[in-house]
Amino acid sequence: MKKRTVERIPANLKAEFFWSDKINSGSVTDLSENGMLVNTTACPPLRAKFDISIPLKNDVVKLPVKVRRILKNDSIYDAIGLEILNPPKQYLDFVSSLRWEQIKGFKTSGQIIKLYICKVCHHISFDHAPINCPICSATIESFERAPEAIKRPDNFAELSEFEKKHIPAIKIMKEDGYINVHVKVGEIEHGMDFDDHISFIDLYYNDPFINKKCVSRITFNCAKMHPSNTVRFNNVNEGVLTVISNCSAHGNWLAKAVF
Fold first, then answer.
1. Domains of the chain and CATH, by start
2. Does pLDDT of 166 surpass 80?
3. Beta strand extents in the chain (DSSP E only)
4. Average pLDDT score over the chain
5. Measured in whole angstroms, how far is the alpha carbon of residue 27 from the centre of its chain?
6. Residue (of 183, 194, 172) closest to 254 by Cα position
7. Nearest-angstrom CA–CA distance, 259 and 253
8. % residues pLDDT > 70 (the chain)
9. 220 phi and psi, to 5 degrees?
Protein backbone atom coordinates (compact mmCIF):
# COMPACT_ATOMS: atom_id res chain seq x y z
CA MET A 1 0.00 0.00 0.00
CA LYS A 2 1.28 3.48 -0.87
CA LYS A 3 2.57 5.34 2.18
CA ARG A 4 0.52 8.39 3.13
CA THR A 5 2.22 11.73 2.57
CA VAL A 6 0.28 13.31 5.45
CA GLU A 7 -0.04 11.76 8.88
CA ARG A 8 -3.63 11.29 10.03
CA ILE A 9 -4.87 12.72 13.35
CA PRO A 10 -7.20 10.58 15.51
CA ALA A 11 -10.69 12.09 15.70
CA ASN A 12 -14.21 11.40 16.90
CA LEU A 13 -16.62 13.47 14.83
CA LYS A 14 -20.13 12.73 13.64
CA ALA A 15 -20.65 12.83 9.88
CA GLU A 16 -23.59 12.81 7.47
CA PHE A 17 -23.68 12.35 3.70
CA PHE A 18 -26.35 11.87 1.03
CA TRP A 19 -26.03 8.63 -0.93
CA SER A 20 -28.45 6.08 -2.40
CA ASP A 21 -31.36 8.51 -2.11
CA LYS A 22 -31.04 8.99 1.63
CA ILE A 23 -29.02 10.70 4.33
CA ASN A 24 -26.48 8.34 5.87
CA SER A 25 -24.54 8.78 9.10
CA GLY A 26 -21.09 7.77 10.26
CA SER A 27 -18.17 8.82 12.45
CA VAL A 28 -14.81 10.28 11.43
CA THR A 29 -12.09 8.31 13.23
CA ASP A 30 -9.06 10.03 11.72
CA LEU A 31 -8.40 12.94 9.39
CA SER A 32 -5.77 15.10 7.71
CA GLU A 33 -5.62 18.11 5.41
CA ASN A 34 -6.58 16.00 2.39
CA GLY A 35 -8.32 12.87 3.68
CA MET A 36 -10.31 11.10 6.39
CA LEU A 37 -11.56 7.68 7.47
CA VAL A 38 -15.28 7.34 8.16
CA ASN A 39 -16.90 4.41 9.92
CA THR A 40 -20.28 3.76 8.27
CA THR A 41 -22.43 0.86 7.14
CA ALA A 42 -23.42 2.81 4.02
CA CYS A 43 -20.36 2.40 1.79
CA PRO A 44 -20.46 4.09 -1.64
CA PRO A 45 -18.29 2.47 -4.35
CA LEU A 46 -14.71 3.42 -5.18
CA ARG A 47 -14.30 6.79 -6.92
CA ALA A 48 -17.83 7.86 -5.92
CA LYS A 49 -18.06 11.62 -5.28
CA PHE A 50 -20.38 13.33 -2.82
CA ASP A 51 -20.47 15.93 -0.02
CA ILE A 52 -19.97 15.00 3.61
CA SER A 53 -20.96 17.26 6.51
CA ILE A 54 -19.05 17.34 9.80
CA PRO A 55 -19.39 19.62 12.85
CA LEU A 56 -16.41 21.87 13.51
CA LYS A 57 -16.73 23.74 16.79
CA ASN A 58 -19.92 25.81 16.47
CA ASP A 59 -20.50 25.24 12.76
CA VAL A 60 -21.17 22.47 10.25
CA VAL A 61 -18.82 22.24 7.27
CA LYS A 62 -19.65 20.52 3.99
CA LEU A 63 -16.68 18.87 2.28
CA PRO A 64 -16.56 17.55 -1.29
CA VAL A 65 -15.00 14.07 -1.15
CA LYS A 66 -14.09 11.05 -3.28
CA VAL A 67 -13.98 7.42 -2.12
CA ARG A 68 -10.44 6.04 -2.23
CA ARG A 69 -10.76 2.92 -0.06
CA ILE A 70 -13.47 0.63 1.22
CA LEU A 71 -12.75 -1.37 4.37
CA LYS A 72 -14.51 -4.41 5.73
CA ASN A 73 -14.56 -6.32 8.99
CA ASP A 74 -14.98 -10.02 8.28
CA SER A 75 -17.56 -9.97 5.48
CA ILE A 76 -19.17 -6.61 6.33
CA TYR A 77 -18.07 -3.32 4.78
CA ASP A 78 -17.95 -0.81 7.60
CA ALA A 79 -15.60 2.08 6.69
CA ILE A 80 -14.53 4.28 3.77
CA GLY A 81 -11.32 6.20 3.16
CA LEU A 82 -12.06 9.57 1.59
CA GLU A 83 -9.98 12.08 -0.34
CA ILE A 84 -11.06 15.66 0.35
CA LEU A 85 -11.38 17.64 -2.87
CA ASN A 86 -10.47 21.33 -2.57
CA PRO A 87 -10.71 21.52 1.25
CA PRO A 88 -12.10 24.88 2.41
CA LYS A 89 -10.09 27.24 4.60
CA GLN A 90 -12.33 26.62 7.62
CA TYR A 91 -11.50 22.91 7.51
CA LEU A 92 -7.76 23.51 6.99
CA ASP A 93 -7.77 25.91 9.95
CA PHE A 94 -9.43 23.22 12.08
CA VAL A 95 -6.79 20.65 11.10
CA SER A 96 -4.07 23.24 11.76
CA SER A 97 -5.37 23.66 15.31
CA LEU A 98 -5.14 19.89 15.81
CA ARG A 99 -1.65 19.81 14.32
CA TRP A 100 -0.71 22.57 16.73
CA GLU A 101 -1.61 20.40 19.69
CA GLN A 102 0.85 17.84 18.30
CA ILE A 103 3.56 20.46 17.93
CA LYS A 104 3.04 21.71 21.48
CA GLY A 105 3.65 18.21 22.84
CA PHE A 106 0.21 16.62 22.82
CA LYS A 107 0.47 12.83 22.51
CA THR A 108 -1.05 11.38 19.34
CA SER A 109 -0.76 7.72 18.34
CA GLY A 110 1.93 7.27 20.97
CA GLN A 111 4.13 9.99 19.44
CA ILE A 112 5.14 13.44 20.68
CA ILE A 113 6.25 16.03 18.17
CA LYS A 114 8.97 18.33 19.50
CA LEU A 115 10.58 21.53 18.27
CA TYR A 116 14.32 22.23 18.14
CA ILE A 117 15.93 25.51 17.11
CA CYS A 118 19.43 26.20 15.80
CA LYS A 119 21.20 28.75 18.01
CA VAL A 120 23.30 29.89 15.02
CA CYS A 121 20.74 30.59 12.26
CA HIS A 122 17.40 30.07 14.11
CA HIS A 123 16.24 27.27 11.81
CA ILE A 124 13.49 25.13 13.38
CA SER A 125 13.57 21.33 13.17
CA PHE A 126 10.57 19.13 13.89
CA ASP A 127 10.58 16.03 16.10
CA HIS A 128 14.37 15.73 16.41
CA ALA A 129 17.55 17.76 16.02
CA PRO A 130 19.45 17.01 12.77
CA ILE A 131 23.08 15.91 12.67
CA ASN A 132 23.82 19.12 10.80
CA CYS A 133 21.62 22.15 10.28
CA PRO A 134 20.30 22.19 6.68
CA ILE A 135 20.72 25.98 6.58
CA CYS A 136 24.06 26.80 8.23
CA SER A 137 25.60 23.30 8.67
CA ALA A 138 25.98 23.78 12.43
CA THR A 139 26.30 20.50 14.35
CA ILE A 140 23.58 18.86 16.42
CA GLU A 141 25.09 20.43 19.56
CA SER A 142 23.92 23.82 18.27
CA PHE A 143 20.27 22.80 18.56
CA GLU A 144 18.18 23.21 21.70
CA ARG A 145 14.66 22.20 22.66
CA ALA A 146 12.29 25.10 22.01
CA PRO A 147 8.62 24.19 22.66
CA GLU A 148 7.59 27.86 22.28
CA ALA A 149 9.57 28.48 19.08
CA ILE A 150 6.46 29.00 16.93
CA LYS A 151 3.78 31.54 17.77
CA ARG A 152 0.18 30.37 17.86
CA PRO A 153 -2.79 32.56 16.82
CA ASP A 154 -5.32 33.23 19.56
CA ASN A 155 -8.16 32.11 17.29
CA PHE A 156 -7.55 30.33 13.97
CA ALA A 157 -11.02 31.26 12.72
CA GLU A 158 -10.69 35.00 13.49
CA LEU A 159 -7.14 36.22 13.03
CA SER A 160 -6.23 39.63 14.37
CA GLU A 161 -4.60 42.26 12.14
CA PHE A 162 -1.31 41.62 13.96
CA GLU A 163 -1.52 37.88 13.21
CA LYS A 164 -2.47 38.50 9.57
CA LYS A 165 0.77 40.48 9.18
CA HIS A 166 2.90 37.57 10.38
CA ILE A 167 1.33 34.29 9.21
CA PRO A 168 2.51 33.38 5.69
CA ALA A 169 -0.10 33.52 2.93
CA ILE A 170 0.49 30.68 0.45
CA LYS A 171 -0.83 30.47 -3.11
CA ILE A 172 -0.24 27.30 -5.14
CA MET A 173 -0.51 27.21 -8.94
CA LYS A 174 0.10 24.14 -11.14
CA GLU A 175 1.54 24.90 -14.57
CA ASP A 176 3.14 22.73 -17.27
CA GLY A 177 4.00 19.88 -14.90
CA TYR A 178 5.45 22.22 -12.24
CA ILE A 179 4.08 23.62 -9.00
CA ASN A 180 4.58 27.35 -8.52
CA VAL A 181 4.33 28.43 -4.88
CA HIS A 182 3.92 32.11 -4.06
CA VAL A 183 4.48 33.05 -0.41
CA LYS A 184 3.75 36.48 1.04
CA VAL A 185 4.06 37.52 4.68
CA GLY A 186 1.30 37.93 5.52
CA GLU A 187 -2.30 38.26 4.36
CA ILE A 188 -1.77 41.93 5.30
CA GLU A 189 1.78 42.58 4.08
CA HIS A 190 4.33 42.98 6.88
CA GLY A 191 6.40 46.16 6.96
CA MET A 192 10.18 46.06 6.58
CA ASP A 193 11.41 48.50 9.21
CA PHE A 194 14.94 48.02 10.52
CA ASP A 195 13.76 46.95 13.99
CA ASP A 196 10.65 45.04 12.86
CA HIS A 197 10.94 43.11 9.60
CA ILE A 198 10.68 39.61 8.12
CA SER A 199 14.21 38.19 8.22
CA PHE A 200 13.55 34.97 6.32
CA ILE A 201 11.10 32.23 5.43
CA ASP A 202 11.91 28.51 5.59
CA LEU A 203 10.04 26.07 3.32
CA TYR A 204 9.49 22.42 4.28
CA TYR A 205 8.10 19.65 2.11
CA ASN A 206 6.82 16.59 3.91
CA ASP A 207 7.21 12.87 3.72
CA PRO A 208 5.03 12.08 6.72
CA PHE A 209 4.19 15.12 8.88
CA ILE A 210 6.80 14.43 11.56
CA ASN A 211 9.58 14.13 8.97
CA LYS A 212 9.17 17.50 7.28
CA LYS A 213 12.31 18.27 5.27
CA CYS A 214 13.54 21.82 4.85
CA VAL A 215 14.00 22.46 1.14
CA SER A 216 14.79 26.17 1.04
CA ARG A 217 15.43 29.35 3.00
CA ILE A 218 14.68 32.74 1.48
CA THR A 219 16.23 35.75 3.24
CA PHE A 220 15.11 39.35 2.90
CA ASN A 221 17.12 42.58 3.00
CA CYS A 222 14.83 44.90 4.95
CA ALA A 223 16.09 48.00 3.12
CA LYS A 224 15.51 46.66 -0.39
CA MET A 225 12.98 43.78 -0.36
CA HIS A 226 9.37 42.99 0.43
CA PRO A 227 8.59 39.72 2.27
CA SER A 228 7.30 37.73 -0.69
CA ASN A 229 8.75 35.23 -3.15
CA THR A 230 7.76 32.61 -5.73
CA VAL A 231 9.46 29.22 -5.96
CA ARG A 232 8.93 26.41 -8.47
CA PHE A 233 8.77 22.73 -7.54
CA ASN A 234 9.42 20.09 -10.19
CA ASN A 235 7.35 17.53 -8.26
CA VAL A 236 3.59 17.25 -8.67
CA ASN A 237 3.08 14.51 -6.05
CA GLU A 238 0.56 15.25 -3.32
CA GLY A 239 1.94 16.47 -0.02
CA VAL A 240 1.99 19.34 2.45
CA LEU A 241 4.11 22.47 2.19
CA THR A 242 4.95 24.09 5.52
CA VAL A 243 6.23 27.67 5.63
CA ILE A 244 7.74 29.35 8.69
CA SER A 245 8.27 33.11 8.65
CA ASN A 246 10.69 34.79 11.05
CA CYS A 247 9.95 38.30 12.27
CA SER A 248 12.93 40.08 13.84
CA ALA A 249 10.66 41.53 16.53
CA HIS A 250 7.88 38.96 17.00
CA GLY A 251 9.31 35.49 16.37
CA ASN A 252 8.27 32.60 14.13
CA TRP A 253 4.89 31.98 12.51
CA LEU A 254 3.69 28.90 10.61
CA ALA A 255 1.31 28.16 7.75
CA LYS A 256 0.61 25.06 5.65
CA ALA A 257 -0.88 24.31 2.24
CA VAL A 258 -1.77 21.05 0.48
CA PHE A 259 -0.43 20.33 -3.02
1. 9-86 (2.40.10.220), 150-259 (2.60.40.730)
2. yes
3. 9-19, 22-31, 35-39, 49-56, 59-73, 76-84, 115-118, 124-126, 143-145, 168-175, 178-185, 198-205, 213-219, 228-233, 240-247, 251-258
4. 85
5. 22
6. 183
7. 20
8. 87
9. -125, 130
